[in-house]
């Protein structure tokens, strides 16, 4: 009978519980996992569980929700042209490299990742079918932009990429509201969970299309947002500053990615706070770009740095919701928790940095009913840490300290010395 086959609840006891909601941590807590969900979490003395429950004593450890990266590029392995275009090794090797990144990212406690472009839906299926380990995935597939925008991969010499067209990563250049609607629909057909677009250049985009240079008209963006929302998809928009970031917010996007020059747009930020448009600052990628071998990338990243920090401070003051994202890809993997340290340097408390990578990130992805906090009814995505990130968020960068990773109640990683060998 089903009820007899169902495994006994598991109870983690003795831990310090950081539940992701921002509530003060609970010392000597217990957490009951029933199947793939959390049945209860709180102070141990106030809880009870069935006698046949399997109790795991993890005294001295900290338990927090599985981490979420709201902006990653799991299939990107470098910024060099040949690597970006997949020319320097066979496609199968690139895919296996991506599979390794997925496994390593999960092993660092990241149980959910939103991919902002480059990862195709086959990886998500492979993880769901148990073929490879990896986080839960929310996929953007490709960056939608007009001709000349960051989704247009034409080279500075005017050449198009020589790689074969991949129907799993459909073309993402669209001009005019009709084409924009068509490309959104095509993206959704290919498995996009979120629509990724861009209304400005960035630090690493081609010379001539910089952080304050706009892409897409208001009409195009309104069409993109309306079509995405009609299909039940949120819109994450790469936008750094200038008129493009205004176009994006006013068209109704759900998150601004990077937002480095938002400090120049106080009214826009107030609007974001009011409408709960998320800011995903992705501080990590600019640390990388400040050292870029490309002079124009390095100069842009250095020029935006102070504005970026001012933007995060202003977001905190105004109550613009913030989610942690790295923009990793060719850097950062699997040390995605770097972002938490940078967020703290930018002015978040350590608790806020943890929330940015748990509850707030789940809200940004529209998954806060299922993920992001350790409360009864949520999926049992959680990590057991040797150390306390509220004392030092850098403990999350050390693999040996991420002792256990649970995804949907299943133990994916167990680094404890006495753990049964895998
Ligand atoms: Zn990105």
Task: Please characterize this protein's 3D structure.
- This protein is α/β, with parallel strands linked by helices.
- It contains 13 helices and 16 strands.
- Strands 1, 2, 3, 4, 5, 14, 15 and 16 form an 8-stranded mixed beta sheet that branches.
- Strand 11 (234-239), helix 7 (243-251) and strand 12 form a beta-alpha-beta unit.
- Helix 5 packs parallel to helix 6 (218-230) and helix 6 (218-230) packs parallel to helix 7.
- The longest helix has 24 residues, at 295-318.
- It starts with a helix and ends in an 8-residue tail after the last strand.
- The model has no long low-confidence stretch (mean pLDDT 95).
- Zinc ion (ZN) is lined by residues 71, 73, 116, 327.
The unreliable regions are none
Q: What is the terminal separation in angstroms?
A: 29 Å
Number of strands: 16
- Rounded mean pLDDT is 95
Q: SSE order, as H and E? A: HEEEEEEHHEHEEHEHEHEHEHHHHHEEE
Shape: globular
Attribute tags:
422 residues; alpha/beta; eight-stranded mixed sheet; five-stranded parallel sheet; globular
Q: Helix and strand layout, with pairings?
A:
Blueprint: H1 2-5, E1 10-17, E2 26-34, E3 37-43, E4 54-57, E5 62-65, E6 67-72, H2 81-84, H3 91-107, E7 110-115, H4 121-128, E8 136-139, E9 143-144, H5 176-189, E10 194-198, H6 218-230, E11 234-239, H7 243-251, E12 255-258, H8 266-275, E13 278-280, H9 283-289, H10 295-318, H11 338-345, H12 350-356, H13 359-365, E14 382-385, E15 402-407, E16 410-414
Parallel strand pairs: 1-4, 1-5, 6-7, 7-8, 9-10, 10-11, 11-12, 12-13
Antiparallel strand pairs: 1-2, 2-3, 5-14, 14-15, 15-16
The protein binds zinc ion.
